[in-house]
Write a structure and sequence with these properties.
The protein is mainly α and 106 residues long. It has 4 helices and no strands.
Length: 106
Amino acid sequence: MAGGPLWLRAVHRLERAIGERVEAVVHSEAYFDVVTIAQRQQREAKALAESVSRRALHLLNLPAGSDVRRLREQLARMDRRLSRIAKELEAAELPEADPAEADGRR
């Protein structure tokens, strides 16, 4: 058992034989071209599916994902605006410290 179990040596030999070929393919220019084309087609298929589903949902008078996303963005903007207005109102309502009162407290 100098090199380990027989099954492990067999797995290592198989991995070396297959691994070298896989690495050669993965590092080739053709592989990168195929991956680029596949990603582009996947993006186009996703855009087509979203377009079809958006139209179908709108025909049923239901909101699509893009509608919900747009409403969430509007709601977030309104929330930030209301927070800013509330802070401004709070600052305007706070009475300014009168120097005479500050001396009387000491």
